[in-house]
Fold each of these.
Amino acid sequence: MTRLDARIAIGSGWEELAGHPVEGGRSALWVRVPEVGMSAGALAVLGDYVPFGISQSLGGWWPSNSLDNTLRVVRLAPADWVLCDIRVDGLTNGFGHGSVYLWNEDGVLLGAASQSALVRNRK
């Protein structure tokens, strides 16, 4: 995480998030990974943001562990910044499921990721 530069596009920072869930389970971040070229590996890292989206949907930080990840690379187009468009599809019984669509600055879909996560009790 120290190598990523991220800016919230839809959602709230951790300080403002408490009690303010995003509407519709959708959040988004502009992310760049300085000194790392566009690759399937870079997209896989950026596709791992469903736990962030889960916390945004619940209106507070909830620790989550990834259970599975799937990445579908559409196109490896150049990108300094990638929009991680995060959509939480479901949250129930301690599990969360979602998708992350990865776009470059020109609106080119780079890839789509899906992920399931175990959502832990904050206590």
Note: The chain has one domain: 5-119.
Amino acid sequence: MTLLGRELILGVGGGISAYKSADLLRRLQDIGFGVTVIPTRASLNFVGSATWEALSGRSVNENLWNNVHEVPHIKSAREANLIVVAPATADLIAKISNGIADDLLTNVISAATSPIILVPAMHPEMWLSAANQANVATLRSRGVLVIEPDEGRMTGEDFGIGRYPEVSRIVLEISNFANINSDLLGKKILVTAGGTREAIDPVRFIANHSTGKQGYAIAKAARNRGAEVVLIAANSNLADLPGVEIVHVSSAEQMQKALTERFPTCEILLMAAAVADAKPANTSTVKIKKANYQSIELETNPDLLASLSKIRSAKQFLVAFAAETSEIDQTTIESAKSKMVNKGADLIYLNNVSNGAIFGADETAGLLIDSNGETIEFKNQSKDTLADLLLDRALNKLR
């Protein structure tokens, strides 16, 4: 199970341990989640909306009948990548188990398709009651994670199972259940994608077949692992990625400007874009007539990655890409190694794009080469798989 983003709804039930969810909210933010709190009306007797708004930085709504024109329960359910209810009272567990939706939180849960995690907290007699245990069993059979409560002191002199679990255990169980990898949390990743266009006149240009799929896959993987991601996209028709800063460019010159502004603050740069090697020496401001459209004088574009490598710091990691139209053999491998050295990269991905391969496809095939000469072969694996492997190698090197 892989989250496409890090938007989380924290539902808060009406139990005395609701105050402990303030710490849980903070810890969820620490691993990169944007948290929206939906309290039950009963829970506001223990912790008010002002506390949740101050901690989450977001408005808090518990009333199903506010902003009805926006259909808030459906909107919230669709935007959430994960729903956590803590504390989950016996009342809430019973409602969720039986599909009862009588407030905003239970309506959101009823409409949700994202993973749901419940953190029960109640007196031992309530936790162990036959009705509650049957409801928990039903929820678990539907794929809901119901975290076992701790054993310990409750309110007053009561002692037993039913205590709100330690927050560290809750976060660990959430991460394991939803397969959340936060190893890039706090890292700044810069990615290029797509293919540049070099204008000949207002209607014609020099371009290539790159669609941006590999660069977008890298940006998505980095975002999902907690990174702060900037994607410089050249002429790609792919939809913008939520949670990723997208900078749209067209030409190599525009990409160079965007890279120059953002490169100094990044820790990992992955140059997946296909940048045109040359551009017209002169660009006409009007359409060139067919009779005059006979030859184009070209001039070389600057090597963007080589230029950046000259100002890099020792704490930055650079990844290059090389596209060939011949079989990967010793000749093309040596050429890729030379390219890696000349561009000042730490890693290069070599692939064969002959006969229309790779461009626009969901899968890739090629050879990953690092500065130590180690190679990893890819045979028809997804671009998402390559994206995560590139990030793994970069992170290990930085460490």
Note: The CA atoms of residues 363 and 383 lie 5 Å apart.
Amino acid sequence: MKVYYSISDFQNVSRPILTTGTFDGVHFGHKIIIDRLKEIAKKQNGETVLLTFSPHPRMVLFPNDHNLQLINTMDEKIKLLEQAGVDHLIIHNFTKVFSRTTSLQFIRDIIVNKLNTHKLVIGYNHHFGRNREGSFEHLKEYAPLYGFEVEEIPAQLIDDVSISSTKIRRALLSGDVSKANYFLGYNYLLRGQVVEGQQIGRTLGFPTANLKIADESKLIPSDGVYAVLVEVKGQFFMGMMNIGNNPSLISKKNSIEVHIFDFDSDIYNEQIEVRFFKRIREEIRFENLQALKNQLETDKATIKALFKSDELDNI
């Protein structure tokens, strides 16, 4: 997959079959659109093109709304779209000036003149342009005039899947990573740098890697303990992750930390990837550290049994 970081960088592509949108999550609903794109490209001897934007338009249009959390970082999205089989990915800088582009300007100047689109495929009820004024009806009106084709994915196909980025975010924020994974078609993940923590886990026999997530917009699942798979330097290990404020400890600082099973190496400052499988329990306040240690032993046994069972046979 070839990646472009501006619409103006895109050129010399044969018969572009285009779709556009934020594609946060690159979930099953998105893959319906991408698969249709690939099907058309194969029949019409074209190449698939996906136009997306960074930062997310809502972050530009509503800068004071700090509630938006994204399923994917841009690096994750690039990897997922490549795996989905997209030929060309355009990541265009979304600004307030760009947001004022009318639907007609978007069609004429971008879809036609800059991208030379042969056919445009959009999801059901997709809107674009200033104040979201553009619609499928608008595209149908102008497509014959500007010499491109347009197709809308039927509502029934999208409704049959019953998946949306909003539903996935809600599942993650409630701690239901199993449901989120089902909707996504892959395991939700966090990638971060290992930083120094309080090292209390080490005194209990459960040393943890504390993660610093660089992208502040990345959605962090609900507080609790999770069964996870951890990738360290290309190797995978079972583990358990705790997200929360450690209510049993004096410090109430919120943290994201993972205990990696059967692992004893110094990985400070390393980048690791954590893939979520199931939430084991919510955070609990314990009377003393021994009670906490006993629960950690139970959690570890539960997670090891879970990974050995058929329930997680997709890893």
Note: The chain has a mean pLDDT of 90.
